[in-house]
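Dear U.,

For the methods section draft, I wanted the exact inputs and outputs in one place so we can describe them consistently. I've listed the two proteins in the order they'll appear in the manuscript figures. Please don't edit the token lines directly; just add comments below if something needs changing.

First protein:
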Amino acid sequence: MDLPVRSLYLCRHGQDEDNAEGLLNGQRNRPLTALGREQAAAAADFIRTKYPHIDVILCSPLSRATDTALAIAQGLPNGQPVPVLLDLLKERNFGVMSGKPIADIVSLAGGDDNVIKTDKVTYFLEVEGGENFPTLLKRAEEVLDYLKRPIFSGQNVLLVCHGDIGKMIRAAFHQWTWQQGLQTPYFANTEVLELKPFA
């Protein structure tokens, strides 16, 4: 992927209440748990130590991501940069699956033909009111197109986002299919991924 940025990192938000309760969150806007705040603080320490040169933080407007991004920004030298909200980084819209138990994904999605099972996550594919993965991959491509703006040239950029959109951003970056993107290793709460190399 040919981008003008110097380096690009992804970070998933800390644990939120839906994560803790075993519920599918999607675009539900529930806050970080106490553990999630601890995870965000730990991510801030990690990034300050390993990637103190972050110039730009873009984050999903959902509170679990913005609060994680704020913790990271406050841990960087001089509390900079201030996170900028980017709607494209919102989690996948889960439609009718939003708020449903993760344990019931297969039955709620209509059976094995409408899911993909990976190492730690079972992904539902087509549900009423939800984004499918081809659409989500296109949104991820829009995120990368956004980063082609001259303002990001030579900048070290951190994207604070969510599990499904994070996997699709990684897929778009490497020009993988959405299916290949889903089969990549689990993207854990506050895990930091560096996307490289650049063309």
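Second protein (the one for the lower panel):
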Amino acid sequence: MKEPREGRIRIAGVQYRIRPIERVAQFEDQVAATVAAAADYGCRLAVLPEYFTLQLASLGDVRRPFSEQLREVASYVPQFVDLMSRLARRHGIYVVAGTIPVQDSGDELRNESFLFSATGEHAVQGKLHMTRFEKEDWHVSASQRLKVFETDFGRIAIAICYDVEFPELVRAAARKGAQLLAVPSNTDDRQGFLRVRYCAHARTIENQMYVIHTTTVGGLPRVPDVCLNVGQASILTPCDFAFARDGILAESTMNQEGMIVGELNMKTIDDSRSFGTVLPLNDSNHTRELIADVEEIAL
């Protein structure tokens, strides 16, 4: 792992409003303004939410089954990648570009997050666990590999919405040196939002890492599957003396379009893993020993 160039970085979490559009250019303008705003605040990283690209569904025939509409959104992937690459390069900023449905060579749909570097290059993290509606109604297939990405400020991982509810995944990323976890999410009710939010905060404590959780708001009135989005973006920290008092560095106003900005010290994460009040990441080595030999007792 490369040493970070600097300890302190500023990051932006986007609470993206999905609204009806009539032309692709309207989507591009909204995204471009969002990335430009993050750059204007001096951010090194901007994180957009899961499925914010479903705004493009309003351009097609919304009377069709939504699984078919997803495939039409997937047809915009080359244009989307070109747009995000240009924006990342123009502003010299890393971008976790939420997610977009991608149709693979075997004709399966996957929910994928593109991470763009400040030079416009990109890598991809697919969603590893499908929610019931994704699997049963939208016919989206799970990806199969967790990745950790090296940046010039440290290592980051991406857990897409439901994926953050699986502690083993994030622990594996932390063991590979991830200091920051991006959680782009899309939820349509308060219960779903809170499942992701509570699990995201648990992951910060368990793994002594920063988490940036981003959400969609708004919706497309004529598209039942995208008509309602509930969320509140946040930047979450471990709960220890070196971090925010309540483990919340920043959070947005619930269900309102906006952006949160916070400054992270990556060195503080490294220090906490060695000198924190508790050391859950290191001490989890003992946990692995314990769960390998569970004793069952009948009374």
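Candidate sentences for the figure legend, describing the second protein: The domain at 8-291 is CATH 3.60.110.10 (Nitrilase/N-carbamoyl-D-aminoacid amidohydrolase). Residues 103 and 109 are 4 Å apart (CA to CA).

Thanks,
Y.
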